[in-house]
Amino acid sequence: MGRIRLLSETLASQVAAGEVVERPASVVKELVENSLDAGARNVDVVIRRGGIALVRVIDDGCGMDRDDALLSLERHATSKLRSAADLQAVATLGFRGEALPSIASVSRFRLTTREANAIAGTEILVNGGKIDVVREGGKAPGTQIEVRSLFYNLPARRKFLRSENTESRNIEHQIHLQSIGHPEIGFSLMRDDRILFQLPATATLGNRIRDLYSVELLQRLVQVNGDSYPKVRISGFIGQAGLSRQTRSQQLVFVNGRAIESGLITGAVREGYHTALMKGQYPVTFLFLEIDHSAVDVNVHPAKREVRFRDPNGVREAMVHCIQQTLENARTDWQEKFCAPIQPAQTAPVSAKAAPDLRLRSEATAPEATHRELPHLGGAAAGPGQGSEIVKLAPRLPERRFDSAGDGSAPYPQQRVAKPAQQQFQIIGVLSKLYVLMENSNGLVLVDQHAAHERVLFEELRHRMEQQGVPTQKLLLPQTFDLPPRDADWIEHNLSVLQRMGIGIESFGPNTFKIDSLPSFLDISDAAQFMREVIDDLKSAGNSASAMRLGEEMIATSVCRHAVKANDPLRYPEVEKLIRDLLDCDLPYCCPHGRPTMIQISLAELEKKFGRKV
After folding, report:
1. What are phi and psi of 488, to 5 degrees?
2. Does residue 374 surpass a pLDDT of 90?
3. Could you tell me which residues come within 8 angstroms of residue 587 by beta carbon, excluding any fewer than 6 positions away?
4. CB 163 within 8 A of CB 50
5. Spatial distance between the Cα atoms of 308 and 278, rounded to a whole number of angstroms
6. What is the DSSP letter of 254?
């Protein structure tokens, strides 16, 4: 008897604070969310020593009267829930009623608040969870909360805090999240009496991204089409194919205005990009999901970072489709911009005496323009026989004639005028027998001929397999294997998908399966281990994964061996066909491994390099 005791109110609050208040950034998050729920239009944050010495959050929200201010410091006291039914459809950022008492229990706490129509406000001082002073205050309408000496009464917790600079960075990241999630609200952050940023309220998310990051990043983002799917509406921006980071630090996702971390969404984003990203890289996203409040459970974790969806597969399918559709739309816009008509430059006439002869020797002696290779701007000449494989893999267009200069010589390819009307880019030459140099309306374009040909061959082979099916090879001896119940259930529900992927599999007893055929392009020694890997891969890919997903990695490896290489010389019709085929691809920006196929250097960048513009 007597072993079980009730915790004191102070100790219980400190225990709860361990879940809600991990570090100063957690304090800022909770206080800013309260300000947003109070209808604030401006939120100012002041910190000192990384928030350990001071966190002050000032807002111009609705404020509180004396009774509500006192009640807000009681555990599980909130204005946002009235009944259990409200918990099933939480529409506010805060709702648990734990933040203020938890913060006040581990700090020297001061709350000052006043309603807009009140003559005087209320000021409350709390020391380690105990209310010391309650008096009238004369602050502006809204609420101001000061948190000093965080964890002063819990030295063990304070030892786990990082350096002041690190804690400040975490707070800054938290303000970034809140300001991105609510661009209509003005935010400011002051650190150690120095203003880090002031963000005025903006009308659009794009303006907030520009203010927080840069115009350059905004220009490399693509706006999500904003379609409404059956259970979710998705909006925001995602990075162009090829724009990526080594971490998820700029992969931001918001559900009903709440910044969340979700493995489901992360996997869906990755699936949507698929071959548009290099392995180990993560896309840049500013995605907003608007979903019925009853279809998402935010009461999963005290810090409210995680959510649970009622229909995770539906959300995932919508996310994957939205990203794929956005990238496809961006491809159309990119093609139009890439192929915009080139305005002929107005150049002053140069006298024959002063003009140097810029023609290559090979051009001056070539009898037929269509059989010449492009001018090589670097590297040694190719030996005989090189390029035979290229002609086989990238058949030339019907030979085109180019105007000559009348004296038997031919000018550079970009000076040729007899070209089809639809061609709106001009090929200049090849650098180091690898990079095709072109001119378009925006400036200079460099194309990696190997990466470009990889993308062309990859999509051709993938489309062929989707139309004609995956070639399979019968096993000499069928193999059986056992699986755990959950994996066995997954295979039972996806037998048709696996068979479309070229895997001949059927049930062979409880939790046992038999394989009698596999895709012919795979070299498999252990069918059971192979199937376990396939199950893990397709589970992470979800129901939206293509039936060709299994073979795509093998296709990418195969086309890499057969695509044109560096130092392989291409003639003008071959280069032109390669560029046109690339522009017709579903994802022309990158090769199947995620490397960029082409790089645009704008005229503005060139003018800066040459000092023509600042």
Report:
1. -65, -40
2. no
3. 241, 275, 276, 327, 331, 455, 459
4. yes
5. 29
6. E
| Exposure letters 497-529 (e unless 16+ CB within 10 A, then b) | bbbbbbbbbeeeeebebbbbebbebbeeeebee
Q: Which long-range contacts (CB under 8 A, 24 or more apart) does 606-613 make?
A: 606/443, 606/444
Look up residue 401 and give its two tokens.
């004639």
- Who has greater pLDDT, 454 or 565? 454
The whole-angstrom separation of Cα 61 and Cα 39 is 5
When pLDDT is averaged across residues 72-99 and rounded to a whole number, the result is 79
Alpha helices (H) along 357-409: 361-365, 388-393
- pTM exceeds cut of 0.70: yes
Predicted pLDDT at 362: 34
- Per-residue H/E/C for 481-511: EECCHHHHHHHHHCHHHHHHCCCEEEECCCC
CA distances from 386 to 504, 567, 571 (A): 42, 9, 12
State the greatest distance between any 2 C-alpha atoms of the chain, in Å, as a whole number. 112
Inter-CA distances, 155 with 50, 104, 150, 159, Å: 17, 16, 10, 6
Backbone angles phi, psi at 537, to 5 degrees: -65, -45
Alpha carbons 141 and 64: distance in angstroms, whole number: 9
At residue 321, does pLDDT exceed 70? yes
DSSP 79-118: SS--SHHHHTT--SS--SS-HHHHHHHTSEEEEEEE-TT-
Contact between 472 and 502 (Cβ < 8 Å): yes
What separation, in Å, do the N-terminal and C-terminal C-alpha atoms of the chain show? 81
Q: Which of 282, 28, 22 is nearest to 173 (CA)?
A: 28
Residue with tokens 């489709």: 321
- Helix-then-strand count for the chain, H and E: 20, 24
Among the listed residues 279, 259, 248, 283, the one whose alpha carbon sits nearest the alpha carbon of residue 269: 283
Name the 3-class secondary structure at 368. Answer: coil
374 contacts 575 by C-beta, under 8 angstroms: yes
Residues in the chain: 614
Contact between 559 and 461 under an 8 Å Cβ cutoff? The reply is yes
Fill in the amino acid letter for 125: L
Half-sphere exposure of 4 (CA within 13 A, CB side): 0
Six-digit token string for 339 = 């192929």
Of the candidates 323, 50, 58, the residue with the CA atom closest to the CA atom of residue 167: 50
Residue 112 and residue 63 in contact, taking contact as beta carbons nearer than 8 Å: no
Domains in the chain: ranges and CATH: 9-202 (3.30.565.10), 213-338 (3.30.230.10), 364-454+562-609 (3.30.1540.20), 471-547 (3.30.1370.100)
Angstrom CA distances, 566 to 358, 390, 432, stand at: 26, 11, 8
What is residue 91's predicted lDDT score, i.e. its pLDDT?
Answer: 82
Between the ranges 124-138, 230-244, 329-343, 557-571, where is the mean pLDDT highest? Answer: 124-138
- 8 Å CB contact between 268 and 320: yes
Nearest alpha-carbon partner for 260 in 269, 251, 271: 251
3 state DSSP class of 173: helix
The answer to whether residues 286 and 252 touch, using CB atoms and an 8 Å cutoff, is yes
Provide the pLDDT confidence category of residue 195 given band limits of 50, 70 and 90: very high
DSSP 276: G
Closest CA to 515 of 473, 549, 485: 473
Cα gap 431→489, rounded to integer Å: 55
